[in-house]
Amino acid sequence: MSFETSERAWLRETAGVLSQILGLCGRLGVRQSRIFLTRFACKPVSFFKWFRFLAGFRRRHGLGCPHDDLLRKKPYKFFALGLPGHRGFDLLAGHFNLAAAGLPREMLEAAWRGRTMAIGQVTGRRDAYTLTMRLSVHSGASHEGAFSIGLTRQSDRLDLVRLSFILYPLGASPLGASPLGADPLGIGRYTVAIGGLQGSREPAAKRAVIDATRDLCGLRPKDAALLVMEGIAIGGGADHVLGVCDARHTINFRALDKRAGKRADMDQYWSDRGGRQGGEFGFAMPVRNRDMAAPVSRREVYKFEFLNIGKSLFASPLGLNEVPLDRPIERTFVR
């Protein structure tokens, strides 16, 4: 009897996956459908697990159809080079389960449908800077994470930086103990793993980054984005943030002649910010601003605001938010 029940459940899930594939191909057109089906034929188990997860996630949370680009995501080529087995799928599924537990309903729905979410704004001395979050695939970083945040200068809508990440459950690492030597944290806690950190490719980007750094009293746009990640990690009860090293970066999936000039020196960036080699992806950075005191300088005010945007983005596990928010944070909205 139990065998028949499980067989029926498997057949129902298989039919559901096939229905999703047929619907997706019907929307994609001939050329894109051929590309997708070729990938599916090469990695059928990986795609089947991903489609089955999406169908179950949709049922559990009462969501509509996911964005087609979310359906086409490749779990077997995700986040870091050299992941064992189906680890890419586990990271993706873990991220969305944590996001569903923490994001407000309207933001979860927006992410599921592929819409851009404004998550905060910081006003410098002369200009304002808006933070947005979207699916990484819509930031040109499909392999580097599940979500991406972007920092945009309001006066000319110039994108200054893009950071791609996943929520990473603590205590679930194949490596076991904390990469910084601390005792493993409890179930339900999480940190952030950063898969990509890119500046703008616009011709005027270099000048814009210099101007933005001056406007924020010496706070660089990349460091502002990293502060948001630290805030998320603090909300998850973590004392560190993980980062992908150069050798594990997903750019290495590409041919050698297509890698040049595509990313910054990640190893040097992590090392300059107190990172040490370790963790599942190559580097672990301590959360340096966990106990930040009330700001006394304008630069510290800006750092405090970016950190608080991260702390307020995802709900904290009960009892973990040890540093209270000292100022109201503007409520997120979807556009």
From TrEMBL:
Pfam families attached to this UniProt entry: DUF535 (PF04393)
InterPro entries associated with the record: DUF535 (IPR007488)
Protein name (record): DUF535 family protein
